[in-house]
Specification:
Blueprint (H helix, E strand, L loop, with lengths): L1 H9 L9 H4 L6 E6 L5 H15 L7 E7 L2 H14 L4 E5 L2 H11 L9 E7 L17 H10 L5 E6 L2 H11 L46 H8 L5 E4 L1
Parallel strand pairs: 1-2, 1-4, 2-3, 4-5
Antiparallel strand pairs: 5-6
Helix pairs in contact: 5-6
């Protein structure tokens, strides 16, 4: 009960952000934000791969990574691991994304001398199925409006879930006519993009736009669990 009370209070306030110049080694890179990153294992592995490419003087465009998670202990563990691994392109923040996301976007904007946010992922958001808890769902119109306002024009949004209802709700919010998002199709060419994909499953009548494979370079913790229990994962790219 005490944990729930503390969590409830924390959800209501923004958090102080670090000086990004003290965190990231190369601020010319655009930023990748992962919302609800849990222990951050996927994001850390992605950051590790990119830092190895950097050390090899790779010419591909690289990224800085920011994981957002509301549970203090997971964020602390993730940042300790990052420090131990000496990664200079990743950081984790403990906050409620529905409260702090806009301030994070603004702090990384080109107006302040940064390269902006080019990619955002929301993987397996908690469905909060009970009606009285719907307001706790991460993907809501306010969040989508913030992403639409601040994400770079060439930016992309990646969403995955094993709960069909969440996928439908997410599409409804992101594909609202007032926003600038559109669903990835087989006609799009992502060969030179940050994400790769083998295409859309055109035979998936119930979930048009569902990708055939995970276009990220590393599966998330939840995706490993779904694979173990043969749960279908729905993935779409905007």
């Amino acid at each position: 009960l005490n944990f729930l009370i503390i969590l409830s209070i924390k959800q209501q306030y923004t958090v102080p952000l670090p000086n990004w110049k003290d965190i990231f080694e190369d601020l010319s890179k655009t930023f990748y934000i992962d919302i609800g990153c849990a222990r951050g294992t996927m994001l850390i592995e992605m950051a590790k791969k990119e830092q190895i490419k950097d050390n090899k003087d790779n010419q591909e465009k690289q990224h800085n990574f920011i994981g957002i998670e509301i549970r203090d202990e997971l964020v602390k563990e993730a940042n300790e691991l990052v420090e131990k691994m000496k990664l200079k392109n990743i950081y984790f923040i403990c906050c409620n994304v529905n409260v702090c996301l806009e301030s994070i976007f603004i702090s990384l904007s080109k107006d302040l001398g940064f390269s902006g946010v080019s990619h955002l992922s929301i993987q397996f958001p908690d469905p909060w199925s009970r009606q009285k808890h719907k307001k706790r769902q991460i993907i809501q119109s306010e969040l989508v409006d913030i992403v639409d306002k601040y994400l770079l024009i060439e930016g992309q949004v990646y969403i995955s879930s094993d709960v069909p209802e969440i996928v439908q709700i997410s599409k409804t919010f992101f594909l609202n006519e007032k926003n600038n998002f559109r669903l990835f199709t087989n006609e799009d060419n992502l060969n030179n993009k940050f994400w790769w994909t083998s295409g859309v499953n055109d035979n998936d009548v119930d979930f048009p736009g569902n990708l055939m494979e995970n276009p990220l370079t590393v599966p998330s913790e939840r995706e490993h669990v779904c694979a173990k229990f043969w749960r279908k994962v729905l993935i779409f790219l905007l």
